[in-house]
Amino acid sequence: MPPERLEQTTDTLSPDDLARACADAMWKDDDASRGLGMEILDIKPGRATLGMTVKSNMVNGQGIAHGGFIFTLADSAFAFACNSYNERVVAAQGNITFIRPGKTGDRLIATAREISRSGRSGIYDVRVTVDDIVIAEFRGHSRTVAGKWLPVAR
User: What is the fold of 14-144?
Assistant: First the structure.
């Protein structure tokens, strides 16, 4: 985390800076997303965009991107979007519809956006694309659990 963020408390961070600081805290221990070569491209409150390139070991017997990897990218974007408010949030449910296949070398972009957030529950939609072509649509339901990503000023 840059030094200027260390000096600020969660009370003084802008919503965008808070979302970024939460993503940084989450990312450092996210071995799954990092291990698959994902990158965080953008973070805002209730929003996240992640990218991942389909590698040869992500292709199934049909010669197309395995749906599990597409789901994992969408799920990671969902996770970063719903954890952007300094509350620890987990998935309660995730559902994906595959629209077109991805191929080796495709740069997949997953863009998550908050649809609803009330109490401890949230709904997020994630669109996975290659360039302007929609590959999949994902909907995730979230549940807030105990804990914070960042210390809260007292």
Answer: Thiol Ester Dehydrase; Chain A (3.10.129)
